[in-house]
Amino acid sequence: MDVNAIVYAAVVLGGLGVLFGAILTFADKKFAVPVDERFVLVREAVAGANCGACGYPGCDGYANAVVKGKAGIELCTPGGQKTLDALANIMGKESAQTEVQVARVLCQGETGVVKPRYDYAGPHQTCHTAVSLAGGPSMCVWGCVGLGDCVKVCRFDAMKIENGIVVIDENKCTACGMCVMECPRSVIKLLPKAARVTVRCQNQAAPRDAKESCDRACIACRRCVKACQFDAIHVNDNIALIDPHKCTLCGECVKVCPTNAIEQLA
Amino acid sequence: MELSLTNFLLFMVNCILTNNFIFSRYLGCCPFLGVSSKVETAAGMGIAVTFVMALASLFTYSVYNYILVPLGIEYLITISFILVIAALVQFVEMFMKKSLPALYNALGIYLPLITTNCAVLGVTLLNIDNKYDMLWSVLNGTFGALGFLLAIVLMAGVRERLESSNIPKAFKGFPISLVIAGLMSVAFLGFAGLGGM
Which ipTM was obtained for this model? Predict the structure, then answer.
């Protein structure tokens, strides 16, 4: 066998490789694109969960938009106050006190509280599938289905299913909003963490139907409206809604609510 | 082949329509389906491929005839051509990042994918098989890529309209795209024999 054949092959391919490598190295320097040094800093300061809460594709996308001045510095909710301060520092903007938000489940329809419509035993144990079948497994078409689509999208391990309803760990929730988008019933809302009194029901059915479907439904009786001395509660569409900025957490509405639809957190 | 206007025109028609890379050779189908959702990016991809294919034809011709043939190691044709193409694509990517950042962002992942675009390797190997000289190799690369550009832009135009059409659920997205690719291929069959090559 001709040894030269091996030598030629090795030399030619190796030579070509080295040649192209050299050209590319040169081109890399020649065509180097200066990266805004603030981009690196911003990228480090944001939470880095790639959760999409800011509305940009990933943390890189958001950092890019911030550096270019296209996005505000306050959009990274998972990063919280720390990220906001850091971004304000990098971008030379005033830091603001953010209103800390958390995701709240506006439903108390645990197993036994809300009446079942049927027993859902389909192969796809997801809320999206369940709600598309005859109005969902429970009699209330506004409530939590409890199959945990939101739990699957939560990147912060802040959610779990208990007694057929989703429970959010306030301390782990970063208000990224992924669960809010995922929920087919829109039963999860972002609310200020300071708002400790919430009407945990969204049942807009007529009062009698609401009461029939769930023991803890808001039946729009307006007792809370009368009890509130601060004009913080109003009833619209058969549902009471508390204005978190007017509420003083006095707890009067909680006491008068006949169905315990209003809840006061510690 | 002698260089004359008739030959040139025939060759052009032949490369772009009759032996269209997508519709009659079935090469380069990955970007054809992947980057054809918007006319703008499709055109950008087509232009990038044109650039790479023309340059690749030139370089691979040189590598084959001036290095591989004299040393009698023609069997290294595939690996050395892949090397040339990969380096070229890398170079084009750097160049584009610097000079055409908008296009660079629009093409995204598909730009490095030109490296593995079989149309590029295909055209360089066809050049050698057909024993084209340097000029015809470059012309073959350029016109072949223009055929690719035509195909991908046509496809993107159709797919843009599909967005607003009422399509059965099972056919939405890729299935209908593949059906359309097939229909377009049949349509291009009508050019068979044209160009006389």
Answer: 0.72
